[in-house]
Amino acid sequence: MASWYGPRFHGRRTASGERYDMHALTAAHRTLPFGTRLRVRSVHTGKEVVVRINDRGPYQHQRIIDLSRAAMLALGTLERGVTEVELLRE
């Protein structure tokens, strides 16, 4: 499961030290190295997006990745809030 984070965190520092940009194709993952690129596929829409890991999280149970607002929008699942995804190494 994936969720997204946006306006409340926009401009704040990420765990990697860069500023979070909700309009960039980035994501948070608990263990993958910063800079890792992942292809994320929505199970619901079939759309895919490539994101770069630049933060740590998510901290909600059963979620494997937090996507930026832009990434969730690209998947066509922004309105869902939480959505089922598949992660593929880029």
Summary?
With about 90 residues, this protein is mainly β.
Which key features would you list for this structure?
about 90 residues, globular, Barwin-like endoglucanases
Description:
The protein has 1 helix and 7 strands. The radius of gyration is 12 Å and the shape is globular. The protein has a single domain (2-89), classed as RlpA-like domain (Barwin-like endoglucanases), CATH 2.40.40. The model has no long low-confidence stretch (mean pLDDT 95). It has one helix at residues 69-75, and strands at residues 2-5, 26-28, 37-42, 48-55, 65-68, 82-83, 85-89.
Q: Structural class from helices and strands? A: mainly beta
In the residues, how many domains can be counted?
Answer: 1
- Report the end-to-end length measured between terminal Cα atoms: 19 Å
Number of strands: 7
Which superfamily, in CATH terms, is the homologous superfamily? RlpA-like domain
Low-confidence stretches: none
What characterizes the major β-sheet?
A: 7 strands, mixed
Number of helices: 1
Helix-residue proportion: under 10%
SSE topology string: EEEEEHEE
Query: Strand order across the biggest sheet?
Result: 6-1-5-2-4-3-7
Task: Provide the CATH top-level class.
Answer: Mainly Beta
Mean pLDDT: 95
